[in-house]
């Protein structure tokens, strides 16, 4: 076994392999049933919506440390181009964008990670190819994501603006945040776990924002699996705690979530405005829309998640 | 006056310039009040959701006729890259995407069109620049779009699979479709007008899909303005009827909607599955989520619109 | 053996595997010795130069049939941006380009083709990876290309403006063109074989330009190997004759040149102006500069080849 | 007048406006006559060639400080794709590149800079547009660059490995370097001025490499104009000295060269290997090939300059 025993045991324990059939490419998104969606819909009581996305801009969170994963480049291919020849008449402006699918607020698709030669549900890692990208578990397979969202503000629960660098979020932290929020997690919910790490980003320190980072501990995976949540999103770069708690397994949470559980992860989500509102009205549940862009073969996708309360 | 008299009179009549103040960059999106959002929320009764987006793929609807506006290019910058050096351990796949903001299912932002030197609300067309794109009315200003959506299936109402090429959709057609749907349009609603034109696209004939095309007639603009809809989306390439009804004004509906009314337009929306479901249960209203990606300075944005019934 | 016997026998016969050592990544570029370069230099007698490149433009030769290989997209990231804030003072314009390395006039690098699991010199095909591209035989390894060039105008030799579609250029054609040119091919020379196929391109018919196409016959490979030329370039899309002479081996010349001989190929070269000049003065030899761009890991590179007579 | 008097007087003095006619878009490239080319050809005596280009790589010199000007991104769109379906048979690898035209070793085209509303030869700055780029003086107009090159190693002449940050190279420095090189500058030559600044780049310190930087002083412009050189290239980021000697004129040398003289500039040229060789054999003149890529409308172009001695 390539990894320490604890990892493989935990992987087996939380595995959803085969749970939704041998051909399933959706993983825990299967938990978003019409009922789960309606549970989310019922949370929309005031009609106020919050965007949870960082702007797509060349000054985004990427630092260049990940080869070729760039911040968005937006350029104009036409600026008030006179469509009829006459600048007084019909003029059009048009643009293109070049970006990493994971450069800002995004979903990690299930094909983003692999180990021991496999991605989720036992599909060979070789199903990810240069020409077509992820031929299995491509992000386009996830058509819609509409369910109940719950904000677990771990930072606020611990009474800090920002969790310490490298702070591992454990089950007790999630329980405490849920208790504070007065919510009970149900199957198909999507959890938004707030660390406060974006304080670094907004201060202009992208390196500090990146790592070391507070994030989910591998010990939280079993908890998430037992709750049968549909997905988890955080307001940091690495999603999970960095550096890893056991140097022998880098990014264990990525592997357990994406490969074993088949659970998508949200990263770089902007949770501050929502958190402020939840603190104000004491309501930490909402209707969450976070459908990815249908990038065929994508291992991830930018997303503008919207919480409606 | 650069255009025929009828155009300038109509432009004056439907104009929303100054309606939401001299600095407004949202236009009719202002009509999506919390009440409008809740009206949409109340339409979500079964929890079934439909994605209204075409896949983002290099084989998309663009034909190359619009210089530099390309179909999406998706390439891998990493394929199962061994993060720890050992292919048995943590491996990651990552990708980038290069695309026109309007290459597939998208929103036209308010800065997409101009005439007589201005975009919406009297902002100079020169506010669109190469470096920063649309410095006024950039698509990122539209944070969230959550409201009631109504499907007006004009093709089905006329008893055809696909409207004739160059068929202009007039107010009577919209009234008939609304009557058939048993809905009454209210302020802040978003209308999805179905032409059936995508039959060409799915048959592999992108040129026929592009034009000539059935679409909104300039005569429908007053109707839309009176109803105070928040936006309109169609299942074709040109949005409005092509060729234009009056050769002296190319794309008049684009100009009236974007520049004078400040109303965003949706193009290339995939409405077939939704239309089939509406025909089955007779329900043509739903909760619509169609928040754009926050492309700073964008004149448009790809979107994965989701209808929840 | 995966291919017919004739192919494997020919491959063995023309192979340069190991000829320049087990670590060689340059192949026949090794034949461009200082002496070969000086032979080219001596051909520059009048100081007149000719560019052999097609323009890099969105309206280039690519038709979209090769997934994701696009014509160049050139967009401005700045237009007269006031560097000091004042438009009267220092203003700068800047741009980016997105292109397939093989979208227009280019070199095929040695890593562009493989068969039976290997590229040139026995390097495993797996040395081409997503992150770093061609880790062996990347185009950047070819620092400079300065040698004698010879124009073999096969079309003119046969007295036609353009060779018939699917016409296979055989050794006799090359001998006849060389005789007409009054040149004798020497080791390290680069041959420019003209088919006249670009007549289609300049007529706006990119599909006809692409294929079927006149080009090198597999039977010319032995001839080229015996002459020990450094490289060969043509004025067509497919380089070799299309369709292949033996349907059992598609692109045999690509495989024999790139994989077995380790010989780079030039495609889409613009030879008309040069050919006209050579016909005028009867001089078909010249100093040729055709150094690729140092794209690290590139399987090819755009090039602006220059012939100086 | 927008700039200080000294600038406008110098601009008038060195101006080549109208010198080659009102429609000229080549500027000092006109000085590369066949005779100038042959003077360069005669310098090629040993047949040894040197590439003067930095590798095109995502780890290039760009630091992200210039919005949207990125280091090259090279990604594979195909890796050993079985062209016949069988991986044992014909397989092809293909790639694309996304880059700033000025991200690494490049030429500044004449449309790169403007002031007082004009680029070179009095063409309005408005001739640079979003759709087509530089419609006047686009880099594609410069078909070929083949002439004599002279290395002026200012750093070595001053007995240092690297000139001090912000050291302004004045005429006396150029005279001293030419005297040391034993060369006399003639019309149509291209000068390669070495500062040694790339020591920072190769040490991995891109910020220090960028600025402050030693470079040409505005006082060198008159000298260059009198010598009637065709172009000048340097081994630094900013080309000219940074910060500017007179804060009232940022990048004066760029303006005087590009706008008034119509003289292209080379930046990020790799001169170390060449300099070492010149120091060894005492020969500082050579045949220089530095033809740009024909990017239609380009304000610049990547280039792989080659010096042949």
Topology:
4 copies of one chain form a homotetramer.
Chain A: H1 5-14, H2 34-41, E1 49-51, E2 73-82, E3 91-100, E4 106-108, E5 113-114, E6 128-129, E7 133-134, E8 146-153, H3 154-157, E9 168-169, H4 171-181, E10 190-194, H5 198-202, H6 206-210, E11 215-216, H7 219-227, E12 231-234, H8 252-261, E13 264-267, H9 272-281, E14 285-289, E15 300-302, E16 306-308
Parallel strand pairs in A: 8-10, 9-11, 10-12, 12-13
Antiparallel strand pairs in A: 1-16, 2-3, 4-13, 4-15, 6-7, 8-14, 14-16
Task: Please tell me about this protein's structure.
The structure is a homotetramer of 309-residue chains. In chain A, helix 1 (5-14) runs parallel beside helix 8 (252-261). Helices cover 23% and strands 22% of the residues of chain A. The model of chain A has no long low-confidence stretch (mean pLDDT 97). Chain A is built from nine helices and 16 strands. In chain A, the strands form four sheets. Chain A has a nine-stranded mixed sheet with strand order 1-16-14-8-10-12-13-4-15, with helices on both faces. In chain A, strands 2-3 form a two-stranded antiparallel sheet. A two-stranded antiparallel ribbon of chain A has the order 6-7. Chain A is globular and about 70 Å long. The N and C termini of chain A lie far apart (47 Å). Chain A is an alpha/beta fold and 309 residues long. Chains in contact: A-B, A-C, A-D, B-C, B-D, C-D. The interface between A and B is large, with 93 and 93 residues. Strand 3 (91-100) of chain A pairs antiparallel with strand 5 (113-114) of chain B.
